[in-house]
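Why does residue order matter? Because the sequence determines the fold. Keep that principle in mind as you read this record.
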Amino acid sequence: MAPTPTPKPGPVIPKKQAAPQNARASGALIHRIFNEYRGRIESRALAVGERLPSVRAMAASMSISNETVLRAYDKLAAAGYLEARRGSGFYVSPRALEVGALTPSPRWEGPPSPGSWDHLLQSTGPEGDSALGTLPAEWTGTEALSAALRSLAGRPPAGLADYADRRGWLPLREALAARLRMAGIDATPDQIMTTAGAADALNLVVWSLLYQGQYVVLEEPAPFIHTQRLLASGIWILRVQRLEDGPDLERLAELCEKYKPKAFFCSSVLQNPTSTSLSPRKAHQLLKLAEQHDLWIVDDDTYGDLLPRSRLGETARLAALDHFERVIHIGSFSKTAAPALRAGFLAVNSQRMQRLMLMRSVSAIHSSLATDQILHHLLTEGDYEQHCRGLQERLETHGRALLAKVRARGWQANGTGAGMYLWMSPGEAVDAPAVWQALAADGARVANETIFASHRFDSHVRLNIARTDDAMLDRIAAAIDRVASHPRPPAGI
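Structure:
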């Protein structure tokens, strides 16, 4: 057994200060402690593995509350500088010196194995459904899609055989412009390009507007396809934590100052995997920061149609505020209409549209005319709005029920009241990675944090609200019990 390292003498604690009188003072202290220890870690005054003063000791020395210190430590941990060890305290993370550092990816070797991507697309059986990123077929239905196909079959053959405009079929782009206006986004048909889903739109944006070796920022956790597409292009990725009301703007500003990234990839509405939405206040702040640092923003609105209209005042789509000065808006119908339809679009300003059209001319050449016509029928004659309202109501009902069951088992989750997913953690006392491994060994695949984050979210899993049943929750609970009865040995043993 390797001996346990003897901690060095405790680091300097900030000078004693009178207890804060209000939330603003508490926030200033959190910021001060964060900056103090971040600076000491980055300057290597604190070594990797070194233990920080206990929360209680730090609070007593500064005459402040334990909660204020804990929030500062949690912020340091979320940023990657610290790691919490159960029953022991906070230590400088082995990855602390990598925070904000850029490691080029000269060669993309594919998605992490084994099967990290495949089981989000296809079910391997009843136990794998919770990991899927789609709604069940009985939820989306096929009636409207079948009607659209019949309508398409009745059209003159010449109309199906011709090339479409590089932007996409004009009647569909006009219908999309009308839908965007309903969301407060003023886009002309010429500012819209139809795509084979949001993934195709993302691919076109990355290929057209970014270059190998450029810096971009991603939210963390983030959609798997965002990370993998950027890595495949040789882009250097920086990360900011996704909070309940949007990204950590303080951290984003720091990265902008230090690395001058070109773009920021995010989601205003029902972000995957957390199902959180961007608050109006933070949306305005984000756009000001983008203007200050000449940063453009890719806003992935894949899940936006699952947000009830009654909730629109709680969030803000960036394109509605920015008018496409800096924002590229991506939309999709694959989550609501049918996953295999692969129907999406992007909306940009005229300058970026010219570049996108040029790159499309040497890739897909044009949109799928058949798909554009099917989607147009769904939007104009298939009562798509009523269909979405039905999905929203079912997700809200099932989401409340699933959240209650999760909390009844003592697990942690913040229900947003909308969207497809519940971002759940079994709690800090649980060895979550071992739980997910135990489930995989038992044939139950889950969408755990390694799919969506680099390393910081080591306890969360994404549950598909429409596909997670009591049997799956029982499987998770049983795996937690097995891991608790056979804990992994401490490091160094």
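The CA atoms of residues 128 and 445 lie 5 Å apart.
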